[in-house]
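Continuing the batch. This is chain 6 of the set; chains 1 through 5 are on the previous pages. Same settings as before, nothing changed between runs. Recording input and output for traceability.
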Amino acid sequence: DVTTLLEKMYTIASPKLTNGSVEDVFWYLSECEYFVDIIIRLISVFQFYDQYFDEPVISEDGKIFHFYPNHLKNEKYVIPEGVEIINSYAFLNNPHLKMLKFPKSTRFISKSAILNLVNLSSIVVSKENPFFASEYGILYKTRPEKALVKYPSALKNTIFTVPSDVKKIIQFAFDSCNNLKEIMFENNDIELENASFIDCLHI
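Output for chain 6:
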């Protein structure tokens, strides 16, 4: 059952943590490949985090963004300056968010950081950020080569042309983009990671 599963996961993770809290265990396990599918299902079905937090969870030093509770009803969220890392499943299943803004300090965004935000229509990045950029509301990684990280699910376009300077489409980049019907590539050598177009029902 779920309780037994959580106990086993806690047993595996807790010796590797300096603080054996439930929250820390889940953050550690979310980075373990074997548990990724289990974690996302538990969070999605049981809304595990929401019973603990009424505001976004950020590490004490302000550098790691762990989780944005999906019951929060803000349409816009600006990630605080100083946040360097966006953790796996940081923004998951929130039906209210329409805009996310990343600060100049963000240098790493997990591939699974933004998932199933069905009303997200714009991602903005500080122009001073050396690692990421936003073009027409779409999130790109700029180093070491340009990669498309996240195409917001609620963009109205039915056709999208991937720019010629994009070398890679990151995993989950187009998740749940149900307005899209056609994608065109200007670069024939582009790399497509696994599940780049997951849950795109009309492509």
